[in-house]
Specification:
Helix content of chain A: 25-40%
Structural class of chain A: alpha/beta
Structural class of chain B: mainly alpha
Shape of chain A: globular
Order of helices and strands of chain A: EEEHEEHEHHHEHEHEEHH
Largest sheet of chain B: none
Number of helices of chain B: 11
Number of strands of chain B: 0
Oligomer: heterodimer
Strand content of chain A: 15-25%
Radius of gyration of chain B: 27 Å
Chain lengths: 256, 290
């Protein structure tokens, strides 16, 4: 499929093998600019692996990944050009389940690290940008604090600011609230909802079904490394066409 | 009992608990102090027992009094050797660890060979090979026309000592650095890579600063061990503590006096070093204090 103005991410026939384990079995999808795509599925279904393959934290086994005009064609035993990987990574920001803040740096240090080391932006400019994004997630007052002094929710908001500061085209969220105490989930989801309202293109792997229902433009249900169902949230939640989706949603919505 | 009294009780309890806690902490501090005094007294008693026993056996403290200055001058040499060697060893260890962790088979092979060879042979033999063995190869090279290279293989005793200690400790510290680097969670790599940092940038900016903090106590231990191992370079006639003590002890047959003096000097050096290391450790913990 040729890239057009209305597609910012296009993935075709993505496969991932871990040794003999076939984790992704030919995934294809596309995301439009400003779209929020939520990926749901059981643990071990391959949904996180799919997200991690997009920015090459896991090396995909084969397939095609295009992000905003940068295309990587992955084939077995062919090394993808590291410059291509870097170019694709810079198009995407990633937020992790375990935050992965750099503990030896202040929150501001975390947020400006990529600006200074990768983008080579002068320090005073980087600080200005960093402060802007700390303010955006409502934590400018924690600018000089080290991560150990933050709550889980605050850590995740800083991690979001760190990714946003690089001004990526797409934000990837890999179960951003799964490591949080229930009372801290809301503040992180609020930041994500705000980003969605502002038109940030987002791909979100999550178990927060209410977030999927309220915020997503498109929902993908992944099972055993395949996209089983794809569509608008009301269709998937109210009227799933596949039996597996139906069972998954029933167990999940009951415990939600 | 009415409902109100049940509800009213809880707010008082935290205060009680806090008071209890403070009393407990004060008690523990007091007990800790007494314990330290007792342990300290045991140390003093042990030193006194040894001192009295030695004096009964015609140990001559006056001899130490006459010649301590001569031995004391060796402290600077011992410290200089150790500081220079630990600095070079740290650099060697860093490259050794990067080599061991690299996916490049040549780098991995070189690093593994270096660590295995050096850890598998005695430091004294390494000193002999560098100080006595290398000049033999050097003179052979000179006779073959490679004058400059040949000459450069003849090292002074101090140079040989620093080279041997650096190589030796670099090998041990390679394993320390490797373990420290590996102890940093994989998520740190992933976060840095997702921001676009290269492997080298991630290593330098994210992983090493965290790893170094973890291994500071081990490096400190190595530094302390090295100060003592530096006594071995006295075999080459370097005028450090051990050599100086030996020289006088031998001349006047006052071995016990001179070597006890030397031992005490090493002991003091290591106590000061561990104190400095603890302070450094505390300073580096700053980012990790709640």
């Amino acid at each position: 499929m040729p890239m057009n103005d209305n597609v910012i991410i296009n993935v075709e026939n993505l496969h991932k093998w871990f040794g003999k384990l076939h984790v992704l079995k030919g995934i294809s999808f596309s995301v439009s600019p400003k779209e929020v795509m939520v990926i749901i599925g059981r643990s071990g279904s391959g949904k996180s692996t799919m997200l991690r393959c997009l920015n090459f934290l896991e090396e995909p086994s084969s397939g095609t990944i295009s992000v905003d005009g940068e295309t990587a064609i992955i084939a077995p035993r062919v090394k993808v050009d590291p410059k291509k990987i870097l170019a694709i990574r810079l198009k995407m920001g990633m937020v992790f389940q375990d935050f992965n803040l750099f503990p030896h740096m202040t929150t501001l240090g975390n947020v400006i690290e990529g600006l200074i080391t990768v983008k080579k932006i002068p320090k005073d400019e980087a600080i200005a940008i960093g402060e802007k994004y700390l303010a955006k997630v409502g934590l400018l007052d924690k600018r000089d604090v080290f991560p150990i002094r933050l709550s889980g929710g605050q850590k995740q908001r800083i991690a979001i600011a760190r990714s946003l500061a690089m001004e990526p085209k797409v934000m990837l969220f890999d179960e951003p609230t799964s490591a949080l105490d229930p009372e801290l989930i809301g503040e992180v989801l609020d930041v994500m909802k705000q980003l969605a309202r502002e038109g940030t293109t987002m791909m979100v792997v999550t178990h927060e079904m209410s977030f999927a229902r309220d915020v997503a433009d498109q929902v993908i249900y992944v099972d055993h490394g395949e996209i089983v169902e794809q569509g608008e949230p009301q269709d998937i939640f109210n009227n799933p066409s596949d039996e597996r989706t139906r069972i998954f949603l029933r167990t999940f919505l009951c415990t939600d | 009992m009415s409902v109100e009294t049940i509800i009213e009780k809880p707010p008082e309890r935290p205060n009680n608990n806090q008071d209890m806690g403070e009393v407990l902490i004060a008690h523990q501090k007091k007990m800790g102090f007494f314990q330290n005094v007792k342990v300290g007294s045991v140390w003093i008693a042990l030193i006194l027992i040894v001192a009295v026993a030695l004096l009964q056996l015609r140990f001559d403290p006056g001899y130490i009094g006459e010649h301590y200055a001569f031995v004391l001058q060796g402290i600077l040499t011992t410290l200089g050797l150790s500081v220079a060697s630990i600095a070079i060893a740290t650099i060697l260890a860093l490259f050794g660890a990067l080599g061991k962790l690299s996916h490049n088979s040549i780098a991995q092979g070189i690093a593994g060979f270096y660590v295995s060879l050096v850890r598998g042979t005695p430091l004294l033999i390494q000193i002999y090979i560098i100080y006595l063995g290398l000049p033999q190869i050097g003179s052979q090279l000179q006779s073959m026309g490679l004058t400059q290279l040949g000459k450069s293989l003849t090292l002074t005793a101090i140079q040989s000592g620093i080279l041997a200690l650096s190589l030796n400790y670099g090998a041990y510290m390679t394993e320390i650095f490797r373990a420290g680097i590996q102890s940093i969670s994989h998520g740190q790599w992933e976060a840095a890579m997702s921001l676009g940092l290269s492997s080298w940038q991630t290593m330098r900016r994210i992983i090493l600063p965290q790893a170094v903090r973890i291994i500071i106590p081990d490096i400190g231990n190595q530094f302390i061990a090295m100060q003592k191992d530096s006594a071995l370079v006295s075999v080459m006639g370097v005028w450090e503590i051990t050599y100086r003590a030996n020289r006088f002890g031998r001349k006047d047959s006052k071995f016990m006096e001179m070597f006890i003096l030397a031992a005490c000097l090493y002991w003091i050096l290591t106590i000061v070093s561990s104190w400095l290391e603890e302070r450094l450790e505390k300073r580096m913990a700053h980012a990790y204090e709640r």
